[in-house]
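Technical annex, item 7. During the second reporting period the consortium partners agreed on a shared format for inverse folding records so that results from different sites could be compared directly. Each record opens with the tokenized structure and is followed by the designed sequence. A conforming record, contributed by the partner at site C, is shown below for reference.
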């Protein structure tokens, strides 16, 4: 991992030089008027590491469970960039990927997730493995993926790591919290119970996992942790509750599921049975708007982050229970 900002920062030892570089942060209060009853309101917008810039095709975002710092895969710039929970820049690092030939190149990081040990898991478009990094973004180990290409990540409360793959070998690989392989499941196909180009994962409690795929008949499917198909919902038809390209999932502690759609420019909320509860939608660069929302993460404390590769920004939303007015929050592993 090559550091572009070598100054040491903070008690966690991140590398970066937060001053004089200042993030262009827009703190906004209410969402657009049309969203007065929406389950999510925009709290923070991060446009880029340096004032006046935007991210280049960001395709990954994650919250540090310790201090709420926001990690962003700035894919087009080959970097992983770190911001405080208030949007202040803390560090910026070039992610290096090892090609099958052994050559190390500047990577294209995408999906991010923190595991139970506090390490950052990184998927890279140019790497056939998942990187495991410490909080200074130094290499710890790698998760080898036998077939397909890593595309999606999820971590269970017991520390189990799940990796979804794309291309012609779409499967879900399981790793124990000590990073040893623990099997895989999935069969290529488009019908119910099959996988084709996994795009997002979310663990539902202690017994199920939600899998979003780009090219299956059902956009979101629910499997047991052993891979047994249970149900699915959302087709490619028009209308709310359906999907075109589900690009992110986040599950709350009570089993509700947020689903981000890159093409429909929506963030939809479903109950534990798959029934639609609410929709957040809007196009354009105004606060709360989407162009190509490409990644979704939750902090377990009532916030969602949406990376938008079309606009080049990350928005942080406060999420609310549309029925009770409370906050739904995912339990952290």
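Designed sequence (site C submission):
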């Amino acid at each position: 991992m090559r550091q572009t900002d070598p100054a040491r920062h903070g008690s966690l030892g991140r590398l970066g030089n937060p001053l004089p570089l200042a993030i262009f942060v827009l703190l906004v209060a209410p969402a657009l008027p049309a969203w007065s009853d929406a389950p999510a309101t925009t709290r923070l917008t991060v446009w880029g590491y340096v004032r006046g810039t935007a991210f280049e095709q960001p395709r990954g975002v994650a919250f540090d469970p310790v201090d709420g710092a926001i990690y962003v895969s700035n894919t087009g710039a080959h970097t992983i960039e770190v911001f405080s929970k208030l949007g202040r820049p803390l560090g910026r690092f070039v992610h290096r990927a090892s090609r099958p030939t052994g050559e190390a190149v500047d990577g294209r990081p995408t999906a991010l997730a923190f595991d139970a040990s506090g390490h950052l898991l990184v998927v890279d478009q140019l790497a056939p493995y998942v990187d495991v990094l410490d909080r200074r973004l130094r290499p710890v180990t790698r998760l080898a993926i036998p077939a397909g290409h890593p595309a999606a990540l999820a971590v269970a409360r017991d520390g189990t790591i799940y990796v979804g793959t794309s291309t012609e070998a779409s499967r879900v690989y399981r790793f124990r919290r000590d990073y040893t392989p623990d099997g895989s499941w999935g069969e290529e196909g488009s019908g119910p119970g099959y996988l084709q180009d996994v795009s997002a994962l979310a663990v539902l409690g202690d017994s199920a996992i939600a899998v979003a795929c780009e090219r299956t008949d059902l956009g979101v499917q629910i499997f047991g942790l052993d891979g047994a198909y249970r149900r699915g919902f959302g087709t490619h038809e028009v209308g709310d509750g359906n999907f075109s390209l589900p690009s992110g999932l986040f599950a709350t502690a009570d089993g509700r599921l947020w689903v981000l759609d890159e093409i429909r420019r929506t963030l939809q909320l479903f109950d534990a049975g798959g029934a639609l509860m609410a929709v957040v939608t809007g196009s354009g660069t105004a606060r709360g708007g989407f162009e190509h929302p490409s990644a979704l993460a939750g902090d377990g404390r009532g916030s969602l982050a949406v990376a938008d590769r079309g606009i080049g920004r990350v928005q942080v939303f406060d999420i609310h229970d549309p029925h009770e007015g409370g906050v739904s929050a995912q339990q952290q592993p």
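Residues 2-319 form a domain with the Neuraminidase fold (CATH 2.120.10.30). The two ends are 26 Å apart (CA to CA). All partners now use this format for quarterly exchanges.
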